[in-house]
Design goal:
six-stranded parallel sheet; Rossmann fold; Glycosyltransferase subfamily 4-like N-terminal domain-containing protein; seven-stranded parallel sheet; Glycosyltransferase_grp1; 12 helices; glycosyltransferase activity
């Protein structure tokens, strides 16, 4: 079958919220602006976003409420197999591009989506967003297997390109474009008031999912040595890391102003814009949507020197070392130069079209 020069592009991000979804939205916008017909297949409870030039298809059942315990992932998997995969098979025409985004580190579902996509002469592209699994050895093995199923792989850091090469694979590297709404002065002021931070207080912010491997505890340890005019703020959804960090802060007398829970994109971006510095003390990472958002909002960042974080951060420190983290925080807060906000969106479109085997 002869492939059209500009076949339909179907992006698939099943959850409908958080960083990978917001990336898929912006990518869809950019591809639409380049003259491509783009469909974004996503979760039924997706964030309310306006993405002109993109057809939004809420075909995936992926509830945001995480209180269902073990029943929630099994229910998601069951509907994914029985409803979403048959829908994708019917909705993505022969010759089209199917670009699978992330799938929340669920190796088995990723493998199924990619495998089904290979039928009917479709070009299958995969962006794992994380080249490692947070869910154990079996899931990690499935993820590594999934990387061998698509025709092309796109990653969002040069560090992940090297990870792929060590596994005998090749990947395209693209800037990590993100949907980033502008924050108003009133929205920034509201966050500063919530953080009890006047103009004489520097707010150091941890933003995003609070997982054990994201090492908020290292930031709490560093805060023990902070001057009185520096405040630690936390915003994000708890994924198993908050209780320990809250206990640690209480034990050390560290004042943490936290809003623990999922934030819609506008509020999240406003928090990053209102902070003086965003810190990512992670143990492991492929790249970071938080860093990409902060860079576009011109908020300085400090990140652990792991994975692709060093490629976007304003300054780095030795992972796991609170003393070196303090050095980096002091140096960055003393620096009057705002970070370069540029992410090359034209290059992102070019690299995706190259993976899709389409002329720019």
């Amino acid at each position: 079958m002869t492939r059209s020069a500009r076949p339909e592009i179907h992006l698939f991000e099943p959850s409908g919220y958080a960083g990978v979804f917001q990336h898929a939205c912006r990518l869809g916008q950019l591809l639409g602006e380049s003259g491509r017909h783009v469909v974004l297949h996503t979760g039924h409870e997706h964030e309310k976003v306006r993405i002109d030039g993109v057809d939004l298809c809420p075909c995936s059942w992926w509830p945001r409420d995480r209180r269902g315990g073990a029943r929630r992932p099994s229910a998601i998997a069951r509907r994914f197999v029985c409803r979403t995969l048959p829908h994708l098979h019917a909705a993505v025409p022969p010759g089209a591009v199917l670009h699978v985004q992330g799938i929340a580190a669920a190796g088995a579902l990723t493998l199924l989506a990619l495998s089904v996509g290979r039928f009917r002469d479709r070009l299958v592209v995969y962006s794992p967003h994380d080249t490692f699994s947070r869910r154990g050895r079996v899931d990690g093995a499935l993820l590594r297997l999934a990387l061998r199923v698509p025709h092309e792989v796109i990653v969002y850091s040069h560090a992940d390109v090297e990870v792929l090469r060590r596994r005998g694979l090749e990947g395209h590297c693209s800037p990590l474009v993100q949907l980033v709404p502008a924050a108003s002065d009133d929205e920034r002021l509201a966050w500063r008031n919530e953080w009890r931070a006047g103009t004489d207080v520097s707010v150091v912010l941890f933003a995003g999912c609070i997982r054990p491997e994201k090492r908020l505890d290292v930031l709490v340890e560093s805060a023990r040595q902070w001057p009185a005019n520096r405040r630690l703020a936390v915003v994000g959804e708890d994924r198993g890391g908050w209780a320990h960090c809250a206990e640690l802060a209480h034990a050390h007398g560290v004042d943490v102003v936290a809003r623990v829970g999922f934030l819609e994109l506008g509020e999240f971006a406003a928090a990053i814009s209102a902070a003086d510095l965003v810190v990512l003390p992670y143990d492991k990472a492929s790249q970071s949507g938080v860093l990409a958002v902060a860079r576009q909002l011109r908020t300085p960042t400090v990140a652990a020197n792991v994975g692709g974080l060093r490629e976007l951060a304003s300054r780095t420190f030795r992972a796991g070392d609170p003393h070196d983290l303090n050095r980096a925080i002091d140096a960055q807060l003393a620096c009057a130069v705002a970070p370069d906000p540029s992410l090359d969106e034209d290059l992102a479109v070019t690299m995706h079209l190259l993976a899709y085997r389409q002329p720019a």
